[in-house]
Write a structure and sequence with these properties.
about 170 residues, alpha+beta, two-stranded antiparallel sheet, elongated, binds zinc ion
Length: about 170
């Protein structure tokens, strides 16, 4: 078991050696993730596991956790969330190869050196798992559910009474 996480790796060689890694990517290196959130509050804890499946495909298992601050889209206040992602990838050289992958794997694009940018892969996976419109739990949010109803829905009493309308028509000369 290695404690230092590789930033890039040749996944085929790693799979042949059945390499496993557990460690952290430093928050300051997660610049791609930092652009997508209010702040990155912890290092990215990550477990990587390389292997070969029964179809002889190279498989990269990723399990990553990070603390992030997002901005609530309801009350505009920041709040902290723990994001945990888990996924299986298989390296590909092209879009055509990616389309041929079994559905249980996500494609991980190899660069010109036959390596994968592991940090970018982990960051992208975290970014994809972020809520599109992050909001607090309703008990923590400063804007209540009731305030979310835009405009006024007329209550029973505000609606004109149909009989009153009829009566007013009758009374017209
Ligand atoms: Zn809120």
């Amino acid at each position: 078991m290695e404690n230092r996480l590789p930033l890039t790796i040749d996944p085929i060689k790693a799979a042949q050696k059945r390499l496993d890694y557990i460690g952290e990517f430093l928050a300051k290196n997660a610049s791609r993730l930092a652009e997508s959130v209010d702040s990155v509050n912890s290092n990215i804890e990550c477990a990587l596991s390389f292997g070969i499946d029964q179809q002889r495909l190279c498989v990269i298992k990723i399990d990553a956790k990070v603390l992030l601050t997002l901005v609530c889209q309801r009350c505009q206040k920041p709040f902290e969330v723990c994001i945990h992602v888990k996924n299986k990838f298989s390296p590909v050289k092209s879009d055509a190869q990616a389309e041929d992958l079994p559905e249980c794997y996500e494609p991980a694009l190899l660069n010109e050196f036959g390596e994968i940018d592991i940090l970018a892969l982990v960051e992208d996976e975290i970014i994809l798992s972020l809520p599109i419109a992050p909001v607090h739990d309703s008990q923590h949010c400063e804007v209540s559910e009731a305030d979310m109803v835009f405009g006024e829905i007329p209550t029973e009493d505000d609606r004109p009474n149909p009989f009153a309308i009829l009566a007013s028509l009758k009374n017209k000369p």
